[in-house]
């Protein structure tokens, strides 16, 4: 049941419903079987099944499972399943997605090409060895394809072989690394790639005249990326309910602040790390819900963020006339087959809820979730900053309106801001007390 009928991601008031009502609504809208959510209930992942997944099992461990709403990804509405312990992430994702409507997110997902590494050490003549491996590349790829006939039939399999010289001398002598590029289709592909590298390593070492070393995939999957973009009009950026009269924040102000926050992340790795954490809030929550290897994606994301030698933001935002544009590019190695999926009932349900029948769609949804949580976090930071500025200005205005002059304006304004009670009546009371310290302020 990997393809569900189209559904609307607009579920107004979903957050106000009881859990049973949320389930009922999703079941009705999706065509999932009536007992669909049993996959999430206690005991759905049996201790026996868990015991077969990892070592030394003593039980299972639960996390809240939720659905983020408002997502349109490549023109198709989607519910985004999330499993996460941190409050606000699901709300932030839904809120960020809401701002991108009606267009939603557009994505480009590359071919699902993973990199397997074969390390060769103690190579005497590195240049001759590299040339020999390059000459044999086509034959080695063809040989590797024969090892995964079913994957090749599905349009995947080994596609190329590349060589790099890593060291000319040192404790390991001359060192080469051979990259086997494998199109993994709907699998994440780690086991698949590792097996292929193990099968080829001895032959490659012989051709290179060296010793085979490690043979394992790289988690820097820079050949398997997702690019997500969105474009938001100023009106969508303005907070709906500025709680202070006269202190309404405009969409243009929010747009400028978000673009400035993005530039800050581009300049400073300390900020970029937190910026990227806001992206991974959304990405990881989907990865955990859908049974993915989130450590693999985390490792790849941060290695990719640092690939130029400086740690950079994975998503950037820039202003255009009347709105804000954003783009996220990151590696995303995910699968809709293999791994934990055949044993974890909750992960399968999450894929069904998301309508993610392919690894390509799942990667697109993960990326969209990441850009949405990044946007919501930046807007919250931007509006808080703007709000603080507005409140300070507003407090000074009220101090003057209450009759303060000279340095009393700042003193009254500071007290109003500190108390978080920025009203004319309060300004009058504070001013009266400051003028005559025996006058009691209200409790
Ligand atoms: P897997 O071993 O379950 O292999 C996937 C299988 O699915 C393959 O045998 C393939 O033939 C089959 N398949 C069926 N339909 C397919 C389709 N449409 N497209 C592609 N394959 C299809 O899983 P995997 O994806 O090779 O490995 C993922 C697992 O490896 C994860 O559990 C991960 O945690 C683990 N792992 C990760 C690392 C790492 O990231 N460094 C290292 C080792 C293992």
Describe this structure in words.
With about 450 residues, the protein is of the alpha+beta class. About 45% of the residues lie in helices and about 20% in strands. It is built from 14 helices and 10 strands. The strands form 3 sheets. It has a 4-stranded antiparallel sheet with strand order 3-8-10-9. It has a 4-stranded antiparallel sheet with strand order 5-6-4-7. The chain has a two-stranded antiparallel sheet with strand order 1-2. α13 packs across α14. The longest helix has about 45 residues. It binds nicotinamide-adenine-dinucleotide. The site of nicotinamide-adenine-dinucleotide (NAD) has 22 residues, from α5 and α6.
How would you concisely characterize the structure shown here?
The chain has 443 residues and is α+β, with helices and mostly antiparallel strands. It has a four-stranded antiparallel β-sheet. Strands 5-6-4-7 form a four-stranded antiparallel β-sheet. A hairpin with a 6-residue loop joins β5 and β6.
Structural features:
14 helices, four-stranded antiparallel beta sheet, disordered N terminus, binds nicotinamide-adenine-dinucleotide
Layout of helices and strands, plus pairs?
Layout: H1 19-30, H2 47-53, E1 65-73, E2 76-83, H3 89-100, E3 106-109, E4 113-123, H4 126-147, H5 149-153, E5 157-167, E6 174-183, H6 190-208, E7 211-218, E8 225-233, H7 234-237, H8 251-267, H9 269-289, H10 294-305, E9 315-320, E10 323-331, H11 345-354, H12 359-401, H13 407-419, H14 424-435
Antiparallel strand pairs: 1-2, 3-8, 4-6, 4-7, 5-6, 8-10, 9-10
The protein binds nicotinamide-adenine-dinucleotide (NAD).
Nicotinamide-adenine-dinucleotide is lined by residues 150-151, 154, 184-192, 194, 217, 219, 293, 296, 335, 337-340.
């Amino acid at each position: 049941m990997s393809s569900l009928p189209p559904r609307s991601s607009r579920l107004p008031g979903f957050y106000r419903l009881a859990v049973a009502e949320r389930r009922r609504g999703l079941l009705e809208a999706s065509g999932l079987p009536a007992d669909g959510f049993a996959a999430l209930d206690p005991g759905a992942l049996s201790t026996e099944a868990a015991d077969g997944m990892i070592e030394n099992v003593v039980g299972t461990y639960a996390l809240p499972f939720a659905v983020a709403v408002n997502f349109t990804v490549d023109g198709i509405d989607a519910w985004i399943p999330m499993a996460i312990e941190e409050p606000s992430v699901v709300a932030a994702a839904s809120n960020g997605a809401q701002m991108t409507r009606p267009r939603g997110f557009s994505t480009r997902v590359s071919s699902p090409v993973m990199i397997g590494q074969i390390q060769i050490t103690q190579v005497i003549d590195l240049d001759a060895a590299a040339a020999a491996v390059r000459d044999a590349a086509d034959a080695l790829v063809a040989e590797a394809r024969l090892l995964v006939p079913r994957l090749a039939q599905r349009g995947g399999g080994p596609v190329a072989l590349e060589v790099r010289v890593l060291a000319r001398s040192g404790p390991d002598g001359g060192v080469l690394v051979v990259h086997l590029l494998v199109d993994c289709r709907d699998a994440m592909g780690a086991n698949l790639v590792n097996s292929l590298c193990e099968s080829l390593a001895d032959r490659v070492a012989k051709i290179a005249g060296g010793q085979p070393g490690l043979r394992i995939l790289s988690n820097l999957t820079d050949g398997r990326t997702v690019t997500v973009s969105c474009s938001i009009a100023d009106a969508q950026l303005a907070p709906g309910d500025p709680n202070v009269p006269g202190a309404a924040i405009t969409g243009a102000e929010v747009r400028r602040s978000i673009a400035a926050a993005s530039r800050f992340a581009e300049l400073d790795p300390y900020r970029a790390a937190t910026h990227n954490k806001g992206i991974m809030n959304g990405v990881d929550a989907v990865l955990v819900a859908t049974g993915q290897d989130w450590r693999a994606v985390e490792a790849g994301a941060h290695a990719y963020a640092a690939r130029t030698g400086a740690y950079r933001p994975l998503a950037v935002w820039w202003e255009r006339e009347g709105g804000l544009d954003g783009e996220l590019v990151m590696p995303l190695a995910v699968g809709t087959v293999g791994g934990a999926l055949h044993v974890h009932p909750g992960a399968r349900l999450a894929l069904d809820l998301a309508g993610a029948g392919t690894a390509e769609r799942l990667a697109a949804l993960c990326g969209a979730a990441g850009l949405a949580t990044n946007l919501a976090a930046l807007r919250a930071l931007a509006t808080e900053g703007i709000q603080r500025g507005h409140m300070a200005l507003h407090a000074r205005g009220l101090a003057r309106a209450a009759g303060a002059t000279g340095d009393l304006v700042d003193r009254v304004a500071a007290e109003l801001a500190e108390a978080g009670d920025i009203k004319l009546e309060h300004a009058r009371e504070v001013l009266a007390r400051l003028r005559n310290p025996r006058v009691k302020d209200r409790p």
